[in-house]
Amino acid sequence: MNYRAIMIGEELKELDAFNCFSSIYELDFDYLVNVGKDLPTLLFIDGASYDEKVLQDWLYAFTNIILINNNPIRAFILKGYSEEIHLFKGYYRIVGSPRSSRQLVQEIIKRIDSQLSRIVGESKKIVELKKMLVLSMFYDGSVMILGETGTGKNLLAEVMAELSPRWDRPFYSMNCAAIPDTLLESELFGYKKGAFTGANTEKAGLIELANTGTLFLDEIGDMPMNLQAKILSITENREYFKIGATRPKKVDVRFVTATNRTDDTALRNDLRFRLSAIKVELPPLRERRGDIPIIFDNVLREKGYLLTFESLPKELKEIFLEYDYPGNIRELLNMIEEYLAVNAVVCMTTTKNLEELTRLLAEEAKIKYITKGLTYKEFLNDLHRRITKELLEQRTESLKNDINLVSKEFGLTPRRIRDLIGEFGLK
Fold this sequence. Notes:
- 45% of the residues lie in helices and 15% in strands.
- By secondary structure, it is α/β, with parallel strands linked by helices.
- It folds into four domains: 4-116; 139-281, P-loop containing nucleotide triphosphate hydrolases (Rossmann fold); 285-342, no CATH class; 354-424.
- Strands 2-1-3-4-6-5 form a six-stranded mixed β-sheet.
- The protein starts with a strand and ends with a helix.
- 26% of the residues are buried.
């Protein structure tokens, strides 16, 4: 689970939830403070029976307590059987609808779960990413996605838009590297009739079309400097000029951007600061190889195949798991398609970095001895402890804390596994 849901209100009590309360008067703030920071907590409050002033006072206290204690808690105030109303604040949303509060909860949870399921994987980095996506549902500012080619930046941008306060507003995307510089400005900003030769009609650019919604700009570092300056002006003044226009046009657009270069020097620093209020880094596939079988099974299930990763021949599983995937998920999907087409993976060799990593660790051991006097035995003991802790943390989470399965993988007794969990301070 990537979040916990707490229901408040008689109508919501029978819904599946972490905990339920009949009213906000039963909810103790100490309970919220101590509910735990391991998962984001979503409060669903049936606000129809409360006076507006009562809700405002409660929310004022709630917001301040959460700020003080820095707990990842967000609240939905539901106004069932009422006029459509959406009010977004930093830590809560007021959502109204002609439908019941119960239906509103079900719709919200369904949207959250369906969007999170599009991010396939159970590795630690993906789990943390999904938790961040739940929290960012209440954030309406700019986001910059960092990640190598093929890691799924476009998919992540779509999910963020669907979970944002602008989920029901327009979403447009553009790859800045795929459009010639001469056309990029007109595609983004549009133009007035007669602005240049061939401009026989007025054209709306993506910025205008995405007004009140979200615009995703992929490979933002490939955008020419003069256009970067115009985007900066929009983030500052909320207005822009169409090509050939003499008056600015007001616009309200949320920018989500992406680049595959974490130190992209082609991007203006002032624009980078404006667009990266939140930075999200997508891990390359080689750093979450444990997700490969899950992605494989998910792809084949969507295509209607009964085949699973576990049923593959051993040598083929080794190829899929040991390859480095410079093209990341996009390359993995191509390999799966190739296997389905010709029943083999050809024109590809696995890249094993264990020997290279061993050489690097040996060099590191020598450096530690020279600089800190650390003997090779002490270095190896420390390395063994670090790797054991990392493996234990990853596998206990993936195996749902099943000590017997974990002990089987480690080749240790369940008792020893419990001792190591306590020794490393793991949950």
